[in-house]
Specification:
Layout: H1 2-17, E1 22-31, E2 36-44, H2 45-55, H3 62-65, H4 69-80, E3 84-88, E4 91-92, E5 95-102, E6 107-114, E7 121-126, E8 136-143, E9 149-154, E10 160-164
Parallel strand pairs: 1-8
Antiparallel strand pairs: 1-2, 2-6, 3-4, 3-7, 5-6, 7-10, 8-9
Length: 165
Amino acid sequence: MKQIFTLIFLSFHTLTFAHETYFAFAEMEYDDKCSCLEISIKVSSHDLNEIAENDIENYKGLESALIDKKLIKEITDNIILKGFQISQAKKITQLFYEGFELNNDGNCYFFFKSEEIEPETINVRFDLFMGIYTEQQNKIIYRNSNDINETYGFFIFKRQTDIKL
């Protein structure tokens, strides 16, 4: 009987506290008007909150970031953009923060625009959270000039790829 109770307890604990997968998603599109990329990055609020609690001094929660420009800058600079980088011709492309959205579905969205770049091949490194969660898998959907979505996967063993704009 004691073994059955232990088994039930461990099963319940595993089911209620397990975090089976870790994902971040990005969508990108090249905008001919500004010769730049428009980017959105979607992450789990829970995962981001946990990382921010450890990495950011005087962290008060994601809700505070909605009204605290200094806090959102720390999150974007020290967490999000450290795990998402674009380069072209071996030069890192500067990304400009455009906005942040915290949804009730448990996800956060970060919006960026790149500096002006040529509509040529870029290299994207998307290893966001991979230093913390070895199960982390990230995905980019790039909408090309023909309005066709191209999907690129990023894993612990494949953290970057080239994308033809």
